Amino acid sequence: MNSVADFSSAPVEMHRAPDCSDEEWRLRCQLAECYHLIDYMGWTETIFNHISARLPGPAHHYLVNPFGLNYTEITPANLLKVDLDGHKLQESPYDGNPAGFALHAAIHAAREDVQCVIHTHTTPLSAVAQKQAGFDHNNFYGAQLYGRVGYHSFEGITLFADEKERMVASLGDKHILVLRNHGIAVAEGSIAKAFFLLWTVQRAGEIQCASAALPGPDTQLPDAIKTKCMELTAMLIREGDFANKFFDAMVRKMRAERGPSW
Asked: Which stretches make up the Class II aldolase/adducin N-terminal domain (predicted)?
């Protein structure tokens, strides 16, 4: 079970709307924490990029950030609830970022196993996305991504509905989508799992960029070892509480240094 902090003492304006279910409020609280964590880790792109969480139900409605707010200004209450066309389902003074709807709506509509999608443009990951070879799977973190990465050719800013089908095809049944010459998106079955996957991808990119700057050949890992690393990591995430423990630990660390998130 995903844990979440007690928000019962939050200011009145933070409290949920009367029609907000317990499940939706839990997701709102955890998604808001995720936005603050992305800022805390230094992975933001000012007010740009997006994190979404799909709500339970057949309609595939999802929560996403109000465009124009810093990630540190996002709260459970001001997250937007939208449909697959990006239409707001509740009144809000904010609109969403149109560039996010095509990517997030496409994945949420196509992948029942995905609850959370995180899109970033960090320098290491954008650098890897620009390289023809993409991710190197010969470092500790890169090996864990072996066989989990799809690649999508750059078509410009993702504003147009006709690109959705091609992005979904590029992702396939994988959990990491490299948007070539752009950035990356990770898609997982919970907010905690998506955050942990993003952390792993980010570390893989950082080490790849650092190792590329050093002289001499890299030590190559056999495909069997890469496969073993990927499968063991997937098992830990699938069968244990690994991602939740990591997410909660990072929230505690962030709060200890910054105080309450909102």
From this structure: 29-209
The C-alpha angle with vertex 188 and arms to 138 and 37, in degrees rounded to 5, equals 85
The residue ranges of every structural domain in the chain are: 22-258
What one-character-per-residue DSSP string does 153-200 give?
---SSS--GGGHHHHHHHHTT-SEEEETTTEEEEEESSHHHHHHHHHH
Which ranges constitute the DSSP H helices of the chain? 22-40, 98-110, 123-130, 140-144, 164-171, 191-212, 223-239, 242-258
> Residue 249 is encoded by which pair of tokens?
């630990």
Beta bridge partners of 116: 53, 188
In the block, tokens 């603050």 appear at 36
For 118-168, the pLDDT digits (tens) are: 999 999 999 999 999 999 999 999 999 999 999 999 998 876 778 999 999
Determine contact, residues 96/80, Cβ cutoff 8 Å: yes
pLDDT digits (tens, 9 = 90+) for 2-27: 454 444 444 434 578 888 999 999 99
Class level of CATH domain 22-258:
alpha beta
- What token pair was written down for 23? 């499940």
